[in-house]
Amino acid sequence: MLIAIDIGNTRIKAGLLRKNKLIQVSYFNNTDELTGYINSVNCMYAAVSSVVPEKTEIVKKNINTKNVFIISHKVKTNLNLSYTTPETLGTDRLSSAEGAFYLFNKTEAFKNYSKEIYILSIDFGTATTVNVIEYPGKFTGGLIAPGIDMMFSSLNQNTAVLPLLNISNYNSIIGIDTNSSIAGGVITSAIGLIEKVIRYLKDEKSASEIFIYITGGNAKKIIPHLTFDFIYEEGLIFYGINSLWRLNKEFSSHQ
């Protein structure tokens, strides 16, 4: 059994996987809670994706698991990274892209793929990130934008009178008062970002099909407002972490 750990900017979470199947997801407020949980589970193997290096070191130092695999831009992947600065590619993005690629390869669509197929992994988290994979496995890049909560917060903090709102204030694209106008602007920006990528891939890259995997802390809030086809996978990053660990596990005990 593997415990896959995702240390993000806002949330810390862990997933337990047995025989490549995600069986449990847990959330934590801090590294103390996380390390206590890891030690109670007593897994032989752990794999970590982290965008907060200091928290990574705390976890490594305080867990009993000796076989710890830390994901970085140097690990082997199932993707061909076409990224000019791989050292700046967040391991959360890498793991989510790997997870989407792994899950797609288990679908029926995989058996009838063409070179015009694209796979998107979209994470509605602290930031909204989009990763683009051109089949059969070229990671072509992506987009990073402010997350939904960050946009709401920025409008409140950087203006004199605009209130702090959230997605519950959203009713339609065109707002009929200030609150609904703010919500309309934020949510339409988030959704419009994805729709623009879809149009670009279809118009400029002749994409015949686009398979979209959605995850992240804000995903369930925005899903009711999406009009394109997608697959929601809460544990997308864990499938990616597991896939990377299996590909690199002969090196995991040396980190």
In short:
The chain is of the alpha/beta class. It contains seven helices and eleven strands. The chain has one domain (2-147, 188-252): ATPase, nucleotide binding domain (Nucleotidyltransferase, domain 5, 2-Layer Sandwich), CATH 3.30.420.
Note down, in words, how this protein is organized.
With 255 residues, the protein is α/β, with parallel strands linked by helices. It has a single domain, classed as ATPase, nucleotide binding domain (Nucleotidyltransferase, domain 5, 2-Layer Sandwich). 36% of the residues lie in helices and 26% in strands. The protein has seven helices and eleven strands. The strands form two sheets. The protein has a six-stranded mixed β-sheet, sandwiched between helices. Strands 3-2-1-4-5 form a five-stranded mixed β-sheet, with helices on both faces. β1 and β2 form a beta hairpin. α3 crosses α7 and α4 packs across α5. The longest helix is centred in the last third of the chain and has 27 residues. The model has no long low-confidence stretch (mean pLDDT 94).
How would you describe this structure in keywords?
Nucleotidyltransferase, domain 5, 26% strand
Low-confidence stretches: none
Distance between the ends? 19 Å
Question: What structural category characterises the helix and strand content?
Answer: alpha/beta
Largest sheet, in brief, is: 6 strands, mixed
What is the CATH topology classification name? Nucleotidyltransferase, domain 5
Count of helices? 7
- Report the principal-axis shape: globular
CATH class: Alpha Beta
N-to-C SSE string, H for helix and E for strand: EEEHEHEEHEEEHHEHEH
What's the arrangement of strands in the largest beta sheet? 6-9-8-7-10-11
The H-level CATH homologous superfamily, spelled out, is ATPase, nucleotide binding domain
Portion of residues in beta strands equals 25-35%
